[in-house]
Design goal:
Length: about 350
C-alpha cells in the first residue's frame, strides 16, 4: 500500500488506506469514496505490525474490511504528541467513526470528542465519559490469572517472573492477576516483577526487555510473562536463548519462538475494533462503557500447534477449572497489586 498524503507538514505522518493502493490522494474521502461509510483507526505507538496490541487492532479492522468490502483509513503515530492532531484531522474529515487504540489516547479523545460532538469515537483501553464516546475495557487480570496458573504448574524452580512495559495501572492489572493465579497453585512461589520504564518508550525497547529477562532467568525464574508490547520480543528471545519459557501477550505470540513460548495471554482488541466498525455501520453503535471479560471471551490463553506439546492435560484442566470458577464468581481476581 502506498502512503496517503501527510496529515501535517510538521511531520511525516502516514494516513494509509486499508483498501489497496491509495495512490497520491489528498484526503481520506478520495480513499473511501465521497459519502461512503468510512471509519478511521489510530494505532498506539509501536507500529501496526507489532505482533501484539496494535496488530490485534489491525486484524479486527481487516476482518471488517474483508466482510463488508468497505475501506477504512489508519494512522500510525511515531510520538505521543501526534495523537490529538491525528484524531482532530479524522474528525474534521467527517469520518463516521474514529477508533483510538490505547491508553495514550485518553486525553486526546476527551479533548477532540468535545470539539466534534457529532462524531463517534471508540476508545480502547481507557474510559472517557462523553455522549459520543464508546469506551472499551478488558479484564486483563482474569486472563493473566489463567496464564499464572499455567506458569506455576510449568515451573520447576518455584520461581517465575513478570516484565511489564510502562509502569501504569493497566499493566499492574496484568501483574496482579498473574501473581494471584500462580499463587493459587503454589502459595509459596516466588515472583520477580519488573517494569521497563515510566514513559511510552518502554513499549519499544526489546533490548531492555531481553536484559531484564536474562537477569530474572539467571536468578532462578524459569517462566516469565511479558506484558510490554514490542519490548516483549526481547523477552521471548531471551527465553529461547536460555532454554527457559516466556508467555506472550495481546496477540497469539506462540509462533514467534516456537517451543519457548508457553502460551500467550490473548486480549481481544481485534474483537473490539471489528465490533465498533460493524456496529457503527449498521447503526447499532452505542456510547458508554463496554467491558470485555473472560465470560465474553475478551481475554483468554492460546493453545496451538506451536505450544500444545508444552502444556500437559493436567495444566489445561487446571486452567479451565480456574476459568469456570472466575466466570461463576467463585474466584475474585485482584486488579491491583498489594
Amino acid at each position: 500500500m502506498k502512503g496517503v498524503k501527510s496529515f501535517f507538514s510538521m511531520a511525516a505522518l502516514a494516513l494509509v488506506a486499508a483498501c489497496g493502493d491509495a495512490g497520491d490522494t489528498s484526503s481520506s474521502n478520495d480513499v473511501c469514496g465521497e459519502g461512503a461509510f468510512c471509519p478511521a483507526l489510530a494505532y498506539d505507538l509501536g507500529g501496526k505490525f507489532d505482533k501484539s496490541f496494535n496488530e490485534a487492532a489491525w486484524t479486527g479492522a481487516q476482518r471488517y474490511k474483508d466482510q463488508s468490502g468497505l475501506a477504512y483509513v489508519e494512522f500510525e503515530p511515531t510520538n505521543e504528541a501526534q495523537a490529538e492532531q491525528a484524531l482532530r484531522r479524522f474528525a474534521q474529515r467527517n469520518h463516521d467513526l474514529v477508533i483510538a487504540v490505547g491508553v495514550n489516547y485518553e486525553t486526546a479523545v476527551r479533548h477532540v470528542a468535545k470539539e466534534f460532538p457529532d462524531v463517534h469515537f471508540t476508545l480502547i483501553d481507557a474510559q472517557v465519559d462523553l455522549p459520543n464516546v464508546q469506551s472499551v475495557l478488558f479484564t486483563e487480570e482474569e486472563g493473566s490469572y489463567l496464564v499464572g496458573v499455567l506458569a506455576a504448574m510449568k515451573s520447576e524452580t518455584g520461581t517465575i517472573g513478570f516484565i511489564g512495559g510502562m509502569d501504569i495501572p493497566l499493566i499492574r492489572k496484568f501483574a496482579a492477576g498473574y501473581e494471584a493465579g500462580a499463587k493459587s497453585v503454589n502459595p509459596d512461589i516466588k515472583v520477580y516483577r519488573q517494569m521497563v520504564g515510566t514513559t511510552p518508550a518502554a513499549w519499544s525497547d526489546p533490548i531492555k526487555g531481553g536484559e531484564l529477562a536474562r537477569s530474572q532467568y539467571a536468578r532462578g525464574a524459569d517462566v516469565i510473562f511479558s506484558a510490554a508490547g514490542p519490548t516483549g520480543h526481547g523477552v521471548l528471545q531471551a527465553a529461547k536463548d536460555t532454554g527457559k519459557f516466556a508467555i506472550g501477550v495481546d496477540s497469539n505470540q506462540n509462533h514467534l519462538q516456537p517451543g519457548s513460548v508457553l502460551t500467550s495471554m490473548l486480549k481481544r482488541v481485534d474483537v473490539a475494533v471489528y465490533d465498533a466498525m460493524r456496529q457503527a455501520r449498521s447503526g447499532e453503535w452505542k456510547p458508554g462503557l463496554q467491558v470485555l471479560n473472560l465470560a465474553a471471551d475478551g481475554v483468554a490463553y492460546s493453545v496451538d500447534e506451536h505450544n500444545k506439546a508444552l502444556l500437559s492435560d493436567e495444566m489445561i484442566d487446571a486452567a479451565e477449572k480456574a476459568r469456570a470458577a472466575i466466570i461463576a464468581g467463585e474466584v475474585d481476581v485482584p486488579s491491583t497489586l498489594n
